Amino acid sequence: MATEPGSRERPKRSRPNINDVAKRAGVSRATASRVLGGYGYSSQEVIERVNQAVRELGYEPDRIARTMRSGKSDVIGFVCADISDAFFSAAMRGICDVALREGSQVIVMNTDDRGSQERQATKVLLSHKVDGIIITPVSVREHGHIDAVTRAGVPVVSLDRQLSDSGIDSVVADNEAATAAAIDHLIGLGHRRVAFLGSVQPEEPPALRIGKVRASVAGPSRPSHDRVRGYLRALSAAGLHPDRDLIALVPHDEPKRRMHAVQTMLELEDPPTALFTADSYMTKSAFSLLSERGIAIPGDISLLGFDDLEWTTLVRPRISVVVQPSYEMGRAAAEQLFAQIGRNAAPDTDPRGRRTVVPARFLERDSVAPSP
Amino acid sequence: MATEPGSRERPKRSRPNINDVAKRAGVSRATASRVLGGYGYSSQEVIERVNQAVRELGYEPDRIARTMRSGKSDVIGFVCADISDAFFSAAMRGICDVALREGSQVIVMNTDDRGSQERQATKVLLSHKVDGIIITPVSVREHGHIDAVTRAGVPVVSLDRQLSDSGIDSVVADNEAATAAAIDHLIGLGHRRVAFLGSVQPEEPPALRIGKVRASVAGPSRPSHDRVRGYLRALSAAGLHPDRDLIALVPHDEPKRRMHAVQTMLELEDPPTALFTADSYMTKSAFSLLSERGIAIPGDISLLGFDDLEWTTLVRPRISVVVQPSYEMGRAAAEQLFAQIGRNAAPDTDPRGRRTVVPARFLERDSVAPSP
DNA sequence: CCCCAATCTGAGAACGTTCTCACATTGGAG
DNA sequence: CTCCAATGTGAGAACGTTCTCAGATTGGGG
């Protein structure tokens, strides 16, 4: 009723609030809130009148006001390097599914693996009063900004990487064990010269890239390191000595250097009979180069990769891979986060942080054969 | 100073607010806010004292309270079918990049192409007071819930699909033109029997899948329809008549039926000499089947696909494709959304909604050859 | 008949911000 | 000297919610 003359500028008509509901139901705001919140006492009649009013007005509570009052926002943050990356977008889906079940929403922020962006992201999320944060931290050592989050009483779960010396929960794949098993598989097939080709983050200290692999690889969990460790462990378990020439670690943002690393490996005097490519970037580069050069897989050389990508079953031969369950890892991280949120961020349970390790699976396909 | 005895239960120590800043600077809350907001008059001395206090306390304004007061949240929503899909996650990245520049964050919600989820998502986002929504709507006809969003004064941009009879902005690829050009290319190479293999949404009316393709394909922009239209247009421009047997549209969530559609096509009495696969699902299925069957591409049959996926350059032959610039589409949608937000959601500019069409590119590779 | 517990309700505070308004205090022009 | 504009400041309202508290009304047990 009462359509004002200038019905054009209606957009100013804002959503009904709880006062409107109360008025329509003929009760006070407190009573309406009590009915909606389902606490305290309310007469049956009032309950019905309020619900009726809610329906008639199409009332939806304002989550901002609710957050203001309660401190709980029903929003969590996901901080990752790049949401368009297949691993992160799959994990994101897992996170979203759990969040939906919990009645929460997810804010995503990309860091491009830059510490400054990450620090900014945590600040912003905190000022949005998120209930918790899932993060794939750029650095496993410098995590002052992340500690600040937990200190503010906001739960944090670290995904895919583990922070050293912090009580922060983490969800990681068993990269070391899975890699060791894969390498062991190759050794079992008679391979004695197995190359390890992996990527590292651009920010990583160059020490890792050249000398003292074993030492520099020690420390907190980070996929690239753990996989090197797994490689070394399998070798040593089989009584083989690691050969510096058969290990290459290049920054993941330099495709040319990746190609070059594979190339160098193939031109060795005593070349490897099997390639273990420790991540999707490297697997792709190696496969490209091999097929460009007309080198037969697995006839001339065996190829075993990490990460299951769509194309690994589309190319011939189909590539055998160790696959990280990215969706499930996202789910697990979210489950753990909501568990923390539920018990009100009690930071006392385990001083070293709960660590969830999810198994990576080995998918045998056609790119690996016995050593000639 | 003054570390209380029970310094264990510190987490209750909440972040400093603007009152703390004001107190420390020895001014009123209003003055502190004025300095921080940079409006009105403030003496140089007070400005410095306030900034000093901000630094000392590490004060960060509470965005929830700010939203409460101003109605602007610096958050936008992205509603898509599935964030783990390559198209959406790339678009998401584009959206995030623009949002970052604008000082906003992005909440993602998945619908799995279900109308109920989508309606729910818009409600939730509205109650979070988002400044705008980018959406890939499930249905191009039933958009009452989306109209409700604009009616609430919240800008909306539709991505990849266009809503019929609504003033809602959209960003879409020129699917029809790009498809027509691709088909034309095939015809130019002598192909007379070109098959069209595409997917449709599960919810889509079966009418589309069987008869009267041309008629049912009319209407608002939606990639699957536009591509069929482009196909028909190119055929007709070349004086060719469409053959019902050479057109297959199957729900994208039924891989078996996809395979079956390709199979049927190949077993036709007068089989096609070229396959146009109108989306990534179909391209993958067709390539798989062809290579399984040992059918030579492009020797026995030419293959031309839609969507550029990583593997299309990894397999042999490399697949020629029409590629949709997903990242740029996300960017464009976000740009348009913030433009609307900037001019305060004036819904008066163009009653039919601004339509941004971004060109799809044709990438010629090795999977297309002249007709034998 | 009185009292107290149980039931029901509403007034009002609080969350942290922004911003309007009113009230000083200047100093220069007339 | 007077007046007014320019400059500087603070009190307090408002956003929409939740929830504590106190007050009112019942009814049953003593």
From TrEMBL, chains A, B:
<dbReference type="InterPro" id="IPR010982">
    <property type="entry name" value="Lambda_DNA-bd_dom_sf"/>
</dbReference>
<keyword id="KW-0805">Transcription regulation</keyword>
<keyword id="KW-0678">Repressor</keyword>
<keyword id="KW-0804">Transcription</keyword>
<keyword id="KW-0238">DNA-binding</keyword>
<feature type="domain" description="HTH lacI-type">
    <location>
        <begin position="16"/>
        <end position="70"/>
    </location>
</feature>
<dbReference type="InterPro" id="IPR000843">
    <property type="entry name" value="HTH_LacI"/>
</dbReference>
<dbReference type="Pfam" id="PF00532">
    <property type="entry name" value="Peripla_BP_1"/>
</dbReference>
<dbReference type="Pfam" id="PF00356">
    <property type="entry name" value="LacI"/>
</dbReference>
<dbReference type="GO" id="GO:0003677">
    <property type="term" value="F:DNA binding"/>
</dbReference>
<dbReference type="InterPro" id="IPR028082">
    <property type="entry name" value="Peripla_BP_I"/>
</dbReference>
<dbReference type="InterPro" id="IPR001761">
    <property type="entry name" value="Peripla_BP/Lac1_sug-bd_dom"/>
</dbReference>
<protein>
    <submittedName>
        <fullName>LacI family DNA-binding transcriptional regulator</fullName>
    </submittedName>
</protein>
